[in-house]
Amino acid sequence: xxxxxxxxxxxxxxxxxARLPRKxxxxxxxxSSLGPLADEIEDRIVIDYADIPNFLRSTVESHAGxxxxxxxxxxxxACMSGRFHYYEGYEFEQLAAPIRVFKLMGVRAAILTxxxxxxxxxxxxxxIMVVKDHIKLAGMSPMRGPNLDELGPRFFDTSEMYAPAxxxxxxxCAERVGQKYRTxxxxxFYFAGPQFETPAEIRAARILGGDAVGMSTVTEALTAAHxxxxxxxxxxxxxxxAGVLPQRLSGEEVSAAGAEAAQRFKALVREIxxxxx
Length: 277
Ligand code: HPA
Known about the structure:
The protein is an alpha/beta fold and 277 residues long. Helices cover 28% and strands 24% of the residues.
């Protein structure tokens, strides 16, 4: 089948819908080490990415590569345990697939989570940032290529793509679950990776208004904005970004901080899902 047509995505969506008792309302895309939230989903139906027609395959070890459907805090959710990144070798256009499939399944809102490096020196490791906007200087877009008019317009607005109401809700929920770490609202600065940024890139990101840096989320968020989904993105600060502290960065440090925060991150996402309309 011709890739990136509406029929191409519909084949994935129809395969999934045929295996579910109902349509999912909210999609959760879980970042590095934040996967354990998927364990909380009740009456779960688990489907390997490899079994979904026309779907992408996962390559990152810490990502499970499964779609989990079921009930979370009273909502029927679709959860991607393991997401896809440009640095794995996918093209930006391919990265649109999961969100487009969710849209065709009836999903109306997406919660995107990620691990990120703190650029804002007032942030601390363990803090959570509610994304209020992003900066992506990498020229590519997941919407490059023929537009799918069924999903959204060729030229689409991104001025309030991170839904203000969901951002407010997330901050209220963080207050309620009593995080000992702080929750901020800030700007996510996208770098393609897989190398961590240089200290000079981090200084540039800070001057330009970035509060945190990461290698994911923006592709999914743009795809969701194109097709009119409500978006909430949450970043967990797993490390201070390059050059902030006199030490080197490592993937192990990021994973360890993610694992440490998994429980409270889970509690927060559950509270938010429960509170969503
Ligand atoms: N940079 C980019 N991506 C990241 C980082 C970082 O410092 N930490 C976690 N993901």
